[in-house]
Structure prediction request, 141 residues.
Amino acid sequence: MKTTCSDKVIGDILAGWRYDISGLAPEMRGDYEQHLAECVHCHSRQVLHRTIDIVLMIVATVSAIMFLVAFGAVRHYSPRHALVLELIALAGFLFFSIVWLVVAVATPAPVVVADVARIQARKIQDRLPREIRERLPQGLK
Ligand SMILES: [Zn+2]
Prediction:
């Protein structure tokens, strides 16, 4: 399915930001937020880009851990050429740590994760008052 942007000017600006408006001041976001809500094309692009960010971070995290495990294994079993293998493992770990950092700094993925955490926290908080209310009468008796 091919969609087109309903407002080319705003759409192009958003594309330049990789559909990330989290860095904008709240009073500047209005038009872009409205466009993202109304334009199917830009909204789907935004979802795609944020998905890519999160997948990249997961891949970088898993890769970094794998290289760290490899480093540990080389240290533990100390085969021949241990130093070379250790260096390769460390280089791999460093490389994917940097990838992770770049993705984390350059994209709003942490913001997305923080939003999810905030929504979860709110759900738990919504549940809390009821339990407190149930306990209150007992404490008051
Ligand atoms: Zn658009």
About this structure: The radius of gyration is 23 Å. The mean pLDDT is 83.
